[in-house]
Amino acid sequence: MEAAYEATKLGIATMILVGDEAKISQIAHERGIDLSQFKVVDEPDPIAACKTAVSLVSSRQASSLMKGDIDTSTVMRAVLDKETGLRSGKKLSHIAAFETEGYHKMLFATDCAINIAPDFDTKIDIIENAVAALQNLGIAKPKVALMAAKETVDDKMPVTGEWAKIVDLHKSGERMTGCVVDGPLALDNAVSEDACRIKGINSPVGADADILVAPSIEAGNMLYKCLSFITKAKNGGVVLGAKRPIVLTSRADTAESKLISIALSVLF
Amino acid sequence: MEAAYEATKLGIATMILVGDEAKISQIAHERGIDLSQFKVVDEPDPIAACKTAVSLVSSRQASSLMKGDIDTSTVMRAVLDKETGLRSGKKLSHIAAFETEGYHKMLFATDCAINIAPDFDTKIDIIENAVAALQNLGIAKPKVALMAAKETVDDKMPVTGEWAKIVDLHKSGERMTGCVVDGPLALDNAVSEDACRIKGINSPVGADADILVAPSIEAGNMLYKCLSFITKAKNGGVVLGAKRPIVLTSRADTAESKLISIALSVLF
Lengths: 268, 268
Prior knowledge:
Two copies of one chain form a homodimer. Chain A is α/β, with parallel strands linked by helices. Chain A has helices at 2-9, 21-31, 46-58, 72-80, 120-136, 158-172, 187-191, 193-199, 217-230, 255-267; strands at residues 16-19, 39-42, 65-66, 93-99, 107-110, 143-147, 180-185, 211-213, 234-240, 246-247. In chain A, the strands form three sheets. In chain A, strands 7-6-8-5-4-9 form a six-stranded mixed β-sheet, sandwiched between helices. Chain A has a two-stranded parallel sheet with strand order 1-2. A two-stranded parallel ribbon of chain A has the order 3-10. In chain A, strand 6, helix 6 (158-172) and strand 7 (180-185) form a beta-alpha-beta unit. The radius of gyration of chain A is 19 Å and the shape is elongated.
């Protein structure tokens, strides 16, 4: 609610709160939040509240969905409902955005939170979801780096071969258009000019990646949390691939991170 | 050679250079390095040079091995030679050390560079290698966090179950003694008090991990390179599990990182 209030005051978004109005009023009172800034839809039952929120998005009365103090699984059941949900035919994927002094521009990472061991087709959806989102941010031709532990194909590391095939498919022009895709690359190749120079890497995304695509949820999650909790990069995250963006922040996220996520969902 | 010279001048180590003496002299001259500070063993052939360097370590004339401007595979063939090498019966593993404002103490990560998809027994060797090294640094009972994308066992993420079994084995007192091991944990749980408090994590290594154990080389490598190239943490790395530590730095490492690696190998 603090992030929602902040977003409203900054003119980033108009927020509709769907839930138990009595509880919402109580929290607003405790936190000094002016409820007149929100539209409130009273729906005390959590499952019904999620369904109502999703239907507001389906019917274009709202342009994106945000999870509040509720289980992710309850929200996702409403999102994924085959009749009333927000499915688009694409796999859902998470994208995280980071701003840190250690990189010369915004850096995005995907998928750090949803797809556990994405197969070939899911990897392509993840890339396309991210590229479409970044284009909406005004990055006309995002540079996509496909992450592995090394920059060459190695049969002992199967993801390196999969990335090489995805680069071929990109070059064929059939999928992943409007972007530059290269891989396998290790993280240093994607972000560091020194690393590229010393290792003789000549990649169209080398040292200038916009999007890092993780090979697995473990790798993505560690990258995400390293940047958030050790590097202390400003960060936000949005779920892509549904009809509209979904803000699915975690309890441990700061109010600032939730605010950034709201802003990203508006831009996406 | 710059890192070796620096280590010598700082009194961290006495370095023996094994290689083509003519080339070594030329580089020393170009870089203003005083060769009288080193012992030089003239061995122009790279394979023979590696064998000689390894034999200096085996015979206790040197206490650790460092790779210079030579292929890693050439060095490793000499290290792993069954008769004249440095095998100890344990799997080799890499440990990296980081110092950054974002964490309240030195943070170690393993294995970010050698074992691709370590099996159960290799995971235990990796942990034991790291614990022994940290004990030599004066950390009597290192806190070891077993990394995954979440902090609970999930059949869809097999490594979470493997970590739980390793924690059971640790608790039985049979292996991984002299340390505290917990997992599965996500990176935020391992390093952030806020994350532990908000998520109700009550772990003996929570928010205070010394060692992060990566679930795969992809995850470890991304963590390592995020901390080195984006967070710009001071860092060094050493290969453990052989009879003596091995400094196996990469061409893209800075002279400072190589110096830290030498210092770590001495302490280990």
